[in-house]
Write a structure and sequence with these properties.
By secondary structure, the chain is an alpha/beta fold. It has a single domain (14-151), classed as 3-Layer(aba) Sandwich (Rossmann fold). Helix content is 25%, strand content 32%. It has 5 helices and 9 strands. The chain has helices at residues 13-30, 46-53, 72-75, 106-116, 175-178, and strands at 6-11, 37-42, 61-69, 80-84, 94-102, 122-130, 141-147, 153-154, 170-173. It has a 6-stranded mixed sheet, with helices on both faces. Helix 2 (46-53) links the parallel strand 2 and strand 3 (61-69). Helix 1 packs across helix 2. The longest helix is centred in the first third of the chain and has 18 residues, at 13-30. The chain is globular. The structure holds 1-O-pyrophosphono-5-O-phosphono-alpha-D-ribofuranose. Residues 41-44, 68, 99-107, 159 line the site of 1-O-pyrophosphono-5-O-phosphono-alpha-D-ribofuranose (PRP).
Length: 180
């Protein structure tokens, strides 16, 4: 049942499951014979990532980072604060950075810069959703689930004020909820 706060469903549960399974198969093919390290960017990526890893038939490891932007005035510089760093070194590892959505691209741009400095064997960027219309900073996404309209979307990990992450689909939030 569609949540009452949604204008419409954008990606339903089975559409998400099919695409995530395809992405998992593609990653398994691309990383055959390797043990990639998937890094999830908290919190939005967790629902996607936990589904994705179960579709990757390979030995792999997971880790997480938590970041937030410094605020609107400095956000244009792409600086984000690290609240939780990785547990282990990524040197010589094949790293796949997992996001739920790429909007301006500033978060991934910043993370890419700091992760590359740690000398991984390779670094690929993977996002379930790509909102190209909102892009400020170019990011080189290797894996993209869907191109997303420039609407306020929630569900399947994506939130509004911390809520709606548990919806099993992605929907457009009604304007009456966020006053847009
Ligand atoms: C969202 C999303 C990305 C970032 C993308 O995280 O998960 O990390 O914003 O935006 P950008 O491309 O404009 O940088 P958010 O800060 O909402 O935190 P959350 O993952 O905890 O919801």
């Amino acid at each position: 049942m569609e949540h009452a706060d949604l204008e419409r469903i954008v990606f339903d549960t089975s559409t998400l499951a099919d695409r995530v399974a395809q992405m998992g198969r593609q990653i398994a093919t691309d990383y055959h014979g390797r043990t990639p390290l998937l890094i999830g960017v908290l919190k939005g990526s967790v629902v996607f990532m936990t589904d994705l890893v179960r579709q990757i038939d390979l030995r792999l490891e997971i880790d997480f980072m938590a970041v937030s932007s410094y605020g609107d005035s400095t956000r244009s510089s792409g600086e984000v604060r690290i609240h939780k760093d990785l547990d282990r070194s990524i040197e010589d590892r094949h790293v796949i950075l997992i996001e739920d959505i790429v909007d301006t691209g500033l978060t991934l741009h910043f993370l890419t810069k700091i992760l590359r400095a740690r000398k991984p064997a390779s670094l690929a960027l993977c996002s379930l959703l790509d909102k190209p219309e909102a892009r400020v900073q170019t990011v080189d996404l290797r894996y993209v689930g869907f191109t997303c309209p420039n609407d306020f979307v929630v569900g399947y990990g994506l939130d509004y004020r911390g809520e709606y992450r548990n919806l099993p689909y992605i929907g457009m939030l009604s304007r009456h909820v966020y006053g847009g």
